[in-house]
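User: Show me a protein chain along with its predicted structure.
Assistant: Here is one chain, sequence first, then structure tokens.
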Amino acid sequence: MNQEHELAMALRCAYWGLHRKTDASLEAYKVSAHQYVILELLSLYGPSKQSELVKLASSDPNTIRAMVVTMSKQGLVQRVKHPTDGRAWQVQMTDAARELMPELRERTQDVRNRYVNVMDDEERARLMHLLQKFRDALEDG
């Protein structure tokens, strides 16, 4: 196996490990890891256009659209007319989702602790730097 393949597989395994553990921690709430990311982004940035969520979540339009539809049916988000762009819709959290967020964060804290605590501050900073370089290299092409 060459270095490029090994690196890609290591990143994939790390991501899916994080994803599986987050899914498992949220199972009782019927919220997926993908949905949790959207809720965290809405919590952080406020109501957002779906196109903004695509960029913020590093996802694709079809995935975000499907998640918004599902989350809307679950009562977690709603689509409303954008206040300044009459052609656009924005996604916002419902009151129920805002009330649920502290519980979701608490349930996922162990997962975050597990991956953060395997590194010291310098290693975390270095990893963040390397992941940013990796992301930048892929965005160029």
